[in-house]
Amino acid sequence: MVRYDFDGTTALVTGAARGQGRSHALRYAENGADVVATDVCDTADASTYELSGREQLEETVALAEERGADVIGLEMDVTDEAAVEAAVETAVAEFGGIDILANNAGVAPVGALLEIDEETWDLAVDVNLKGMWLTAKHVGRHMIDRGEGGRIVNTSSTAGLVASPGLGHYTAAKHGIIGLTKTLAAELAPHDVTVNAVCPTAVDTAMTSGIVESIDDDIAEIAEQSGPDNLLDEIMQPEDVSAAFMWLSSDDARFVTGVALPVAAGATAI
Ligand SMILES: NC(=O)c1ccc[n+]([C@@H]2O[C@H](COP(=O)([O-])OP(=O)(O)OC[C@H]3O[C@@H](n4cnc5c(N)ncnc54)[C@H](O)[C@@H]3O)[C@@H](O)[C@H]2O)c1
Q1: Do residues 66 and 26 lie in contact, with contact meaning Cβ atoms separated by under 8 Å?
Q2: Which residues of 4-41 are buried (b: 16+ CB within 10 A; e: fewer)?
Protein backbone atom coordinates (compact mmCIF):
# COMPACT_ATOMS: atom_id res chain seq x y z
CA MET A 1 0.00 0.00 0.00
CA VAL A 2 1.30 3.44 -0.93
CA ARG A 3 2.24 5.67 2.01
CA TYR A 4 1.25 9.35 1.68
CA ASP A 5 2.50 12.24 3.74
CA PHE A 6 -0.56 13.81 5.36
CA ASP A 7 1.36 14.80 8.50
CA GLY A 8 0.06 18.06 9.93
CA THR A 9 -3.20 17.94 7.96
CA THR A 10 -6.79 17.35 9.02
CA ALA A 11 -9.29 15.24 7.09
CA LEU A 12 -13.06 15.48 7.68
CA VAL A 13 -14.91 12.32 6.63
CA THR A 14 -18.72 12.06 6.35
CA GLY A 15 -20.47 8.71 6.82
CA ALA A 16 -17.42 7.56 8.77
CA ALA A 17 -19.13 5.14 11.18
CA ARG A 18 -18.68 2.11 8.92
CA GLY A 19 -17.99 0.90 5.39
CA GLN A 20 -16.05 3.07 2.98
CA GLY A 21 -16.16 6.14 5.25
CA ARG A 22 -14.52 4.21 8.09
CA SER A 23 -11.91 2.84 5.72
CA HIS A 24 -11.10 6.35 4.43
CA ALA A 25 -10.82 7.66 8.01
CA LEU A 26 -8.39 4.87 8.97
CA ARG A 27 -6.25 5.37 5.87
CA TYR A 28 -6.01 9.13 6.50
CA ALA A 29 -4.98 8.32 10.08
CA GLU A 30 -2.36 5.79 8.92
CA ASN A 31 -0.93 8.43 6.60
CA GLY A 32 -0.51 10.99 9.39
CA ALA A 33 -3.66 13.13 9.19
CA ASP A 34 -5.82 14.10 12.13
CA VAL A 35 -9.37 12.96 11.54
CA VAL A 36 -12.82 14.41 12.07
CA ALA A 37 -15.09 11.38 11.77
CA THR A 38 -18.75 12.32 11.27
CA ASP A 39 -21.95 10.34 10.78
CA VAL A 40 -25.71 10.75 11.15
CA CYS A 41 -25.69 8.28 14.10
CA ASP A 42 -29.36 7.50 13.68
CA THR A 43 -30.20 3.88 12.95
CA ALA A 44 -33.89 4.83 12.77
CA ASP A 45 -33.33 7.06 9.73
CA ALA A 46 -35.68 6.05 6.89
CA SER A 47 -34.09 3.62 4.43
CA THR A 48 -34.61 0.04 3.31
CA TYR A 49 -31.73 -0.98 5.60
CA GLU A 50 -30.31 0.38 8.88
CA LEU A 51 -27.85 3.25 9.02
CA SER A 52 -25.08 3.56 11.62
CA GLY A 53 -25.38 4.36 15.31
CA ARG A 54 -23.13 6.32 17.68
CA GLU A 55 -21.36 3.13 18.82
CA GLN A 56 -20.09 2.43 15.32
CA LEU A 57 -18.77 5.98 15.03
CA GLU A 58 -16.97 5.59 18.37
CA GLU A 59 -15.41 2.39 17.05
CA THR A 60 -14.07 4.29 14.03
CA VAL A 61 -12.65 6.93 16.38
CA ALA A 62 -10.93 4.26 18.52
CA LEU A 63 -9.49 2.48 15.46
CA ALA A 64 -8.16 5.75 14.00
CA GLU A 65 -6.61 6.66 17.37
CA GLU A 66 -4.88 3.27 17.44
CA ARG A 67 -3.21 4.37 14.20
CA GLY A 68 -1.71 7.39 15.96
CA ALA A 69 -4.12 10.12 14.86
CA ASP A 70 -5.83 12.80 16.92
CA VAL A 71 -9.50 12.12 16.23
CA ILE A 72 -12.89 13.55 17.07
CA GLY A 73 -16.20 11.87 16.34
CA LEU A 74 -19.11 14.19 15.60
CA GLU A 75 -22.78 13.49 15.04
CA MET A 76 -23.58 15.30 11.80
CA ASP A 77 -26.53 14.77 9.47
CA VAL A 78 -25.30 15.98 6.08
CA THR A 79 -28.80 17.22 5.18
CA ASP A 80 -28.93 19.57 8.18
CA GLU A 81 -27.11 22.78 7.27
CA ALA A 82 -26.88 24.03 10.88
CA ALA A 83 -25.34 20.70 11.95
CA VAL A 84 -22.83 20.81 9.09
CA GLU A 85 -21.85 24.40 9.91
CA ALA A 86 -21.47 23.55 13.61
CA ALA A 87 -19.32 20.47 12.84
CA VAL A 88 -17.02 22.49 10.58
CA GLU A 89 -16.65 25.13 13.31
CA THR A 90 -15.87 22.45 15.92
CA ALA A 91 -13.31 20.81 13.63
CA VAL A 92 -11.58 24.12 12.94
CA ALA A 93 -11.57 25.05 16.64
CA GLU A 94 -10.14 21.64 17.56
CA PHE A 95 -7.51 21.19 14.83
CA GLY A 96 -6.95 24.72 13.42
CA GLY A 97 -8.31 23.94 9.96
CA ILE A 98 -9.56 21.34 7.50
CA ASP A 99 -7.30 20.35 4.60
CA ILE A 100 -9.23 17.41 3.17
CA LEU A 101 -12.93 16.64 2.85
CA ALA A 102 -13.95 13.06 2.11
CA ASN A 103 -17.58 13.66 1.18
CA ASN A 104 -18.76 10.07 1.44
CA ALA A 105 -22.11 9.77 3.29
CA GLY A 106 -24.88 8.20 1.25
CA VAL A 107 -28.04 6.08 1.29
CA ALA A 108 -29.55 3.75 -1.29
CA PRO A 109 -33.20 2.93 -0.55
CA VAL A 110 -34.37 0.49 -3.21
CA GLY A 111 -37.37 0.90 -5.54
CA ALA A 112 -38.37 1.28 -9.19
CA LEU A 113 -38.88 4.86 -10.36
CA LEU A 114 -42.60 4.39 -11.04
CA GLU A 115 -43.17 2.74 -7.66
CA ILE A 116 -41.29 4.83 -5.09
CA ASP A 117 -43.01 7.55 -3.12
CA GLU A 118 -41.90 11.15 -2.71
CA GLU A 119 -40.32 10.42 0.68
CA THR A 120 -37.96 7.87 -0.87
CA TRP A 121 -37.05 10.20 -3.73
CA ASP A 122 -36.39 13.05 -1.28
CA LEU A 123 -34.27 10.87 1.01
CA ALA A 124 -32.03 9.72 -1.84
CA VAL A 125 -31.62 13.18 -3.35
CA ASP A 126 -31.30 14.99 0.00
CA VAL A 127 -28.62 12.76 1.49
CA ASN A 128 -26.67 11.88 -1.64
CA LEU A 129 -26.75 15.22 -3.46
CA LYS A 130 -27.87 18.08 -1.21
CA GLY A 131 -25.82 16.72 1.69
CA MET A 132 -22.71 16.61 -0.44
CA TRP A 133 -23.28 20.21 -1.57
CA LEU A 134 -23.93 21.47 1.99
CA THR A 135 -20.78 19.84 3.33
CA ALA A 136 -18.65 21.05 0.42
CA LYS A 137 -20.17 24.54 0.82
CA HIS A 138 -19.12 24.95 4.45
CA VAL A 139 -15.77 23.18 4.20
CA GLY A 140 -15.06 24.98 0.90
CA ARG A 141 -15.79 28.40 2.45
CA HIS A 142 -13.45 27.56 5.31
CA MET A 143 -10.71 26.47 2.88
CA ILE A 144 -11.03 29.75 0.95
CA ASP A 145 -11.01 31.91 4.13
CA ARG A 146 -7.98 30.06 5.42
CA GLY A 147 -6.09 30.51 2.13
CA GLU A 148 -4.08 27.28 2.25
CA GLY A 149 -5.85 25.35 -0.50
CA GLY A 150 -7.43 21.97 0.02
CA ARG A 151 -8.78 18.75 -1.40
CA ILE A 152 -12.42 17.71 -1.73
CA VAL A 153 -13.25 14.18 -2.84
CA ASN A 154 -16.92 13.33 -3.43
CA THR A 155 -18.30 9.80 -3.57
CA SER A 156 -20.39 9.32 -6.68
CA SER A 157 -20.85 5.78 -8.08
CA THR A 158 -21.00 3.86 -11.33
CA ALA A 159 -24.66 4.89 -10.86
CA GLY A 160 -23.36 8.40 -11.51
CA LEU A 161 -22.23 7.31 -14.97
CA VAL A 162 -24.77 4.73 -16.19
CA ALA A 163 -28.30 3.54 -15.36
CA SER A 164 -28.96 1.57 -12.19
CA PRO A 165 -32.42 -0.07 -12.34
CA GLY A 166 -34.14 -0.16 -8.96
CA LEU A 167 -32.11 2.83 -7.82
CA GLY A 168 -33.20 5.57 -10.23
CA HIS A 169 -33.55 8.23 -7.50
CA TYR A 170 -30.04 7.33 -6.25
CA THR A 171 -28.77 7.29 -9.85
CA ALA A 172 -30.16 10.79 -10.47
CA ALA A 173 -28.42 12.05 -7.33
CA LYS A 174 -25.12 10.31 -8.15
CA HIS A 175 -25.16 11.81 -11.69
CA GLY A 176 -25.84 15.16 -10.00
CA ILE A 177 -22.72 14.75 -7.86
CA ILE A 178 -20.60 14.75 -11.01
CA GLY A 179 -22.09 18.08 -12.14
CA LEU A 180 -21.59 19.43 -8.63
CA THR A 181 -17.98 18.21 -8.63
CA LYS A 182 -17.08 19.79 -11.99
CA THR A 183 -18.64 23.13 -11.08
CA LEU A 184 -17.06 23.22 -7.63
CA ALA A 185 -13.73 22.35 -9.25
CA ALA A 186 -14.06 25.41 -11.51
CA GLU A 187 -15.21 27.73 -8.73
CA LEU A 188 -12.56 26.62 -6.23
CA ALA A 189 -9.60 26.30 -8.62
CA PRO A 190 -8.51 29.94 -8.04
CA HIS A 191 -8.20 29.04 -4.35
CA ASP A 192 -6.00 26.01 -4.93
CA VAL A 193 -8.74 23.62 -3.84
CA THR A 194 -9.15 20.55 -6.06
CA VAL A 195 -12.51 18.81 -6.27
CA ASN A 196 -12.95 15.33 -7.71
CA ALA A 197 -15.45 12.48 -7.66
CA VAL A 198 -14.81 8.77 -7.24
CA CYS A 199 -17.26 6.36 -8.88
CA PRO A 200 -17.11 2.92 -7.24
CA THR A 201 -18.93 -0.15 -8.46
CA ALA A 202 -20.44 -2.53 -5.84
CA VAL A 203 -18.38 -2.58 -2.65
CA ASP A 204 -18.60 -5.12 0.14
CA THR A 205 -20.48 -2.98 2.71
CA ALA A 206 -23.78 -2.86 4.61
CA MET A 207 -25.26 -0.72 1.82
CA THR A 208 -24.68 -3.45 -0.75
CA SER A 209 -26.17 -6.17 1.45
CA GLY A 210 -29.10 -3.81 2.17
CA ILE A 211 -29.72 -3.41 -1.56
CA VAL A 212 -29.39 -7.13 -2.29
CA GLU A 213 -31.81 -8.02 0.52
CA SER A 214 -34.51 -5.54 -0.49
CA ILE A 215 -34.42 -5.67 -4.29
CA ASP A 216 -37.31 -7.61 -5.87
CA ASP A 217 -36.98 -10.23 -8.64
CA ASP A 218 -38.26 -7.98 -11.47
CA ILE A 219 -35.72 -5.28 -10.77
CA ALA A 220 -32.94 -7.82 -10.24
CA GLU A 221 -33.68 -9.19 -13.71
CA ILE A 222 -33.54 -5.74 -15.36
CA ALA A 223 -30.35 -4.96 -13.43
CA GLU A 224 -28.80 -8.17 -14.73
CA GLN A 225 -29.66 -7.25 -18.33
CA SER A 226 -27.99 -3.86 -17.91
CA GLY A 227 -24.60 -5.58 -17.69
CA PRO A 228 -22.09 -6.82 -15.13
CA ASP A 229 -21.09 -4.48 -12.33
CA ASN A 230 -17.61 -6.01 -12.09
CA LEU A 231 -15.46 -7.61 -14.81
CA LEU A 232 -12.96 -8.94 -12.30
CA ASP A 233 -13.39 -11.97 -10.15
CA GLU A 234 -13.84 -10.44 -6.73
CA ILE A 235 -16.10 -7.91 -5.02
CA MET A 236 -14.33 -4.65 -4.19
CA GLN A 237 -13.49 -3.87 -0.58
CA PRO A 238 -13.77 -0.40 1.01
CA GLU A 239 -9.94 -0.15 1.00
CA ASP A 240 -9.96 -0.30 -2.81
CA VAL A 241 -11.96 2.91 -2.87
CA SER A 242 -9.84 4.47 -0.11
CA ALA A 243 -6.77 4.04 -2.33
CA ALA A 244 -8.31 6.47 -4.86
CA PHE A 245 -9.30 8.86 -2.06
CA MET A 246 -5.73 8.91 -0.72
CA TRP A 247 -4.25 9.64 -4.15
CA LEU A 248 -6.76 12.40 -4.95
CA SER A 249 -6.11 13.92 -1.49
CA SER A 250 -2.35 13.93 -2.00
CA ASP A 251 0.12 16.32 -3.64
CA ASP A 252 0.65 13.69 -6.36
CA ALA A 253 -2.79 14.63 -7.70
CA ARG A 254 -2.36 18.41 -7.47
CA PHE A 255 -3.19 18.90 -11.18
CA VAL A 256 -6.17 16.55 -11.10
CA THR A 257 -9.44 18.41 -10.59
CA GLY A 258 -12.99 18.10 -11.90
CA VAL A 259 -12.70 14.42 -12.79
CA ALA A 260 -15.11 11.54 -12.14
CA LEU A 261 -12.82 8.56 -11.58
CA PRO A 262 -14.38 5.10 -11.96
CA VAL A 263 -13.01 2.61 -9.42
CA ALA A 264 -15.22 0.08 -11.02
CA ALA A 265 -13.48 -3.17 -11.95
CA GLY A 266 -14.16 -2.42 -15.60
CA ALA A 267 -17.92 -2.06 -15.15
CA THR A 268 -18.07 1.21 -17.09
CA ALA A 269 -15.72 -0.02 -19.84
CA ILE A 270 -18.25 -2.10 -21.74
N1 LIG B 1 -21.68 0.01 -1.41
C2 LIG B 1 -21.58 0.20 -2.69
O3 LIG B 1 -21.65 -0.74 -3.49
C4 LIG B 1 -21.37 1.59 -3.25
C5 LIG B 1 -21.03 1.72 -4.61
C6 LIG B 1 -20.83 2.99 -5.12
C7 LIG B 1 -20.93 4.09 -4.30
N8 LIG B 1 -21.26 3.93 -2.99
C9 LIG B 1 -21.32 5.12 -2.15
O10 LIG B 1 -20.27 5.04 -1.20
C11 LIG B 1 -20.60 5.81 -0.05
C12 LIG B 1 -20.38 4.97 1.20
O13 LIG B 1 -21.28 3.89 1.19
P14 LIG B 1 -20.99 2.48 1.91
O15 LIG B 1 -20.96 1.47 0.86
O16 LIG B 1 -19.82 2.62 2.83
O17 LIG B 1 -22.36 2.34 2.71
P18 LIG B 1 -22.69 2.25 4.29
O19 LIG B 1 -24.18 2.24 4.36
O20 LIG B 1 -21.94 1.15 4.91
O21 LIG B 1 -22.12 3.62 4.86
C22 LIG B 1 -22.76 4.85 4.65
C23 LIG B 1 -22.64 5.69 5.92
O24 LIG B 1 -23.29 6.96 5.67
C25 LIG B 1 -24.05 7.28 6.83
N26 LIG B 1 -25.14 8.19 6.50
C27 LIG B 1 -26.32 7.92 5.90
N28 LIG B 1 -27.10 9.01 5.86
C29 LIG B 1 -26.39 10.01 6.43
C30 LIG B 1 -26.66 11.39 6.68
N31 LIG B 1 -27.84 11.94 6.36
N32 LIG B 1 -25.70 12.14 7.27
C33 LIG B 1 -24.53 11.58 7.63
N34 LIG B 1 -24.22 10.27 7.45
C35 LIG B 1 -25.15 9.50 6.84
C36 LIG B 1 -24.56 5.94 7.35
O37 LIG B 1 -24.96 6.02 8.71
C38 LIG B 1 -23.35 5.05 7.11
O39 LIG B 1 -22.49 5.03 8.23
C40 LIG B 1 -22.03 6.28 -0.28
O41 LIG B 1 -22.03 7.59 -0.79
C42 LIG B 1 -22.55 5.31 -1.33
O43 LIG B 1 -23.62 5.86 -2.06
C44 LIG B 1 -21.47 2.71 -2.45
Answers
A1: no
A2: bebeebbbbbbbbbbbbbbbbbbbbbbbbbbbbbbbbb
DSSP 3-state assignment of 178? helix
The structural domains of the chain, with segments of one domain joined by +, span 10-260
Q: Is the model's pLDDT at 166 over the cut of 80? A: yes
- In the three-class reduction of DSSP (H, G, I as helix; E, B as strand; rest coil), residue 183 is classed as helix
Atom of ligand 1 nearest to the CA of 155: 41
Q: Give the helix/strand (H/E) hosting 174.
A: helix 168-188
Q: What is the CATH number of domain 10-260?
A: 3.40.50.720
**pLDDT, tens digit (0-9, with 9 covering 90-100), for 207-264:** 999 888 888 887 787 777 777 889 998 999 999 999 999 999 999 999 999 999 999 9
DSSP state string for 80-92: -HHHHHHHHHHHH
Q: What is the mean pLDDT of residues 14-23?
A: 98
Q: Is 156 in the pocket of ligand 1 (CB under 6 A)?
A: no
**Ligand 1 atom with least separation from CA of 128:** 41
For the Cβ of 41 lying below 6 angstroms from any atom of ligand 1, the answer is: no
How many whole angstroms separate alpha carbon 191 and alpha carbon 11?
18
CA distance linking residue 206 with residue 201, whole number of Å: 14
Q: How far is the CA of 83 from the centre of ligand 1 (A)?
A: 18
Active site residue 170: yes
